[in-house]
């Protein structure tokens, strides 16, 4: 017999009770009104409203190694002031529990220009202070790399950045860094679980309006100026000025970037005026990510008007960098370089600047994620540097001991690990601009430099297949099929071996990733997306034989074959 407490009516009653309890502690008039309307609609028998309420309350935004990220809306499965308050109180408890005896832990908090970023940041600062943590709020909206820098610069126990990076306009997020032994890197396991447990305890036992609030400090501009000086110092005095175009993609990158470029001696670029000021609505782009189709169209238009030699673009919180160069074969007149291309040439620059070594234990390290191009490995070998692969995410890349440079293919670069332990789109822009300046002084271009890379290290070609699914279980089925019936060929290229990261591999912790190595030296990585219902496949090929034209053709032919073969295998 069915339990009388488990009827649809009882489940709806319990859902409404949970929604009302949430509403009773929500300090935000906008989400209050939203939730009241939903509760009334469910009371009136609206089935769409009931489904919406279930979506908000049946699960909770999980706090993990990426912190929190989601749509701004009411309920525990959305980003809002209740959820952020619970996160702040839980994080404060975690910091207090782990503080050395007799010491007061500290947190520095930054925020970008997204909707609610400032209020989430000030809520966090007040609640941290109320819990007994020294809380320092950055002076104004600033890029994520400035917050990552401030954690180390101020020797803080923790950093919180309120941002959703390049997510859709109505999203926001909560990114957490730890100081001390973590050196200002993003959280990893087991700290993520420790923090999550404290947040869940607060959610179960505490009422947000009753959480104590305290007075917090506001950092002065000195911390921003220190970041500017440190970041400008990675470039020498320009040997030639570059005619560049810059876009902030409606984010917070420009003011800090401008000050860094002035400090370093570079002429200021031509701006994409419509995208230069922070705007939480992101009005000129469908999706504020430089990788998305159409996102850089205004940059190309501006660059054509001024005959620009280079386009540099930051994402909205300026932790990523996109680069485009003139290309007469393109209808726009410009070609955006892939993250792997930029990662490789910045790696070559870093290797050339690193102290020479015989590759022993004291050698500097070049590092990238396992899904990024093997080109960086070739650079490390050529310069006697060590090479390390990490799991996907800068929380791993930034923790590599002895790191002199790290990158991942999703437009993330770390060129100044002594200052920042996260990807930094501003310092990467300075390094890139400095390189282009040097090349111009020698009478050459970045396009020619890419050709020189292919001649020296081999031509590397990369591709990606991204399959969005309606049922997440579909991804698990594909991964299981590849494991239980491993392919002998991808297209016409024979498989050499398959590495399964499920139980960990070498020094890497367990991860749901397969690496397929092929007899021609190509490589395929298969993994579920960590943030979306997608299966992602990364393809990498290399050719070291023949002329540059022949190398390009061979690498591209292998890439096309891998693409056809993998699409058939995951269909």
Tertiary shape: globular
- Uncertain runs: none
Question: Structural class from helices and strands?
Answer: alpha/beta
Helicity level, as a percent range?
Answer: 25-40%
Strand content: 15-25%
Number of strands: 22
Q: Give the averaged pLDDT, no decimals.
A: 95
End-to-end separation in angstroms reads 43 Å
Largest β-sheet summary = 7 strands, mixed
What is the assembly state of the chains in this entry? single chain
Radius of gyration from CA coordinates: 25 Å
Number of helices: 17
Description:
There is one protein chain. The protein is an alpha/beta fold. 39% of the residues lie in helices and 19% in strands. It is built from 17 helices and 22 strands. The protein has helices at residues 8-23, 29-43, 47-57, 81-98, 117-131, 144-153, 191-205, 222-232, 253-264, 297-306, 339-353, 375-382, 394-397, 425-441, 446-457, 473-484, 548-570; strands at residues 68-71, 106-111, 134-137, 158-162, 171-178, 185-186, 217-218, 244-247, 270-271, 310-314, 321-326, 334-336, 365-369, 386-390, 403-408, 412-414, 459-468, 489-490, 493-500, 514-518, 523-528, 534-543. Strands 1, 2, 3, 4, 5, 6 and 7 form a 7-stranded mixed sheet that branches. Strands 17-22-21-20-19-18 form a 6-stranded antiparallel sheet. Strand 15 and strand 16 (412-414) form a beta hairpin. The longest helix has 23 residues, at 548-570.
């Amino acid at each position: 017999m069915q339990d009388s407490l488990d009827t649809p009516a009882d489940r709806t009653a319990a859902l409404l009770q949970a929604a009302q309890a949430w509403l009773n502690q929500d300090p935000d008039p906008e989400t209050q009104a939203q939730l009241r309307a939903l509760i009334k609609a469910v009371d009136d028998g609206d089935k769409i409203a009931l489904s919406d309420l279930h979506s908000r309350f049946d699960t909770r935004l999980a706090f993990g190694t990426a912190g929190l990220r989601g749509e701004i809306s009411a309920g525990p499965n959305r980003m809002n002031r209740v959820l952020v308050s619970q996160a702040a109180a839980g994080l404060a408890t975690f910091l207090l529990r782990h503080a050395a005896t007799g010491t007061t832990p500290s947190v520095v908090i930054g925020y970008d220009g997204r909707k609610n970023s400032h209020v989430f940041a000030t809520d966090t600062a007040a609640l941290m202070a109320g819990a007994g943590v020294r809380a320092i709020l950055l002076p104004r909206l600033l890029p994520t790399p400035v917050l990552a820098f401030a954690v180390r610069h101020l020797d803080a126990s923790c950093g919180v950045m309120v941002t959703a990076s390049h997510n859709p306009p109505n999203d926001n997020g909560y990114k957490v860094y730890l100081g001390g032994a973590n050196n200002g890197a993003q959280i990893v396991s087991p700290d993520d679980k420790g923090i999550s447990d404290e947040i869940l305890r607060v959610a179960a036992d505490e009422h947000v309006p009753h959480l104590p609030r305290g007075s917090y400090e506001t950092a002065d501009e000195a911390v921003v100026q220190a970041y500017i000086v440190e970041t400008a110092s990675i470039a020498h005095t320009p040997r030639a000025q570059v005619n560049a175009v810059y876009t902030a993609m409606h984010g917070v990158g420009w003011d800090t970037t401008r000050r860094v470029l002035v400090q370093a001696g570079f002429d200021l670029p031509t701006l994409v005026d419509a995208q230069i000021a922070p705007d939480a609505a992101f009005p000129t782009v469908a999706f504020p990510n430089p990788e998305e189709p159409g996102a850089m169209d205004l940059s190309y238009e501006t660059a054509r008007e001024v005959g620009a030699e280079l386009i540099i673009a930051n994402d909205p919180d300026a932790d990523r960098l996109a680069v485009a160069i003139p290309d007469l074969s393109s209808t726009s007149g410009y070609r955006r370089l892939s993250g792997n291309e930029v990662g490789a040439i910045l790696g070559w620059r870093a290797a050339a600047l690193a102290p020479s070594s015989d590759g022993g234990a004291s050698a500097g390290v070049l590092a990238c994620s396992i899904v990024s191009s093997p080109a960086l490995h070739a650079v490390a070998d050529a310069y006697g540097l060590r090479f390390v692969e990490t799991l996907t995410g800068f929380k791993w890349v930034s923790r590599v001991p002895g790191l002199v440079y790290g990158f991942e293919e999703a437009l993330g670069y770390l060129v100044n690990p002594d200052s920042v332990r996260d990807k930094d789109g501003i310092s990467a822009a300075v390094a890139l601009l400095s390189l282009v300046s040097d090349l111009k002084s020698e009478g050459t271009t970045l396009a020619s430099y890419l050709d020189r890379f292919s001649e020296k290290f081999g031509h590397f070609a990369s591709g990606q297949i991204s399959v969005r699914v309606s049922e997440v279980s579909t991804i698990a089925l594909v991964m299981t099929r590849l494991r239980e019936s491993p392919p002998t060929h991808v297209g016409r290229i024979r498989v050499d071996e398959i590495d399964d990261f499920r139980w960990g591999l070498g020094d890497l912790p367990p991860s749901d990733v397969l690496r397929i190595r092929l007899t021609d030296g190509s490589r395929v990585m298969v993994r579920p997306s960590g943030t979306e219902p997608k299966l992602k496949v990364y393809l990498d090929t290399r050719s070291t034989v023949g002329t540059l034209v022949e190398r390009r053709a061979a690498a591209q032919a292998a890439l096309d074959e891998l693409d056809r073969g993998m699409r058939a295998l995951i269909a």
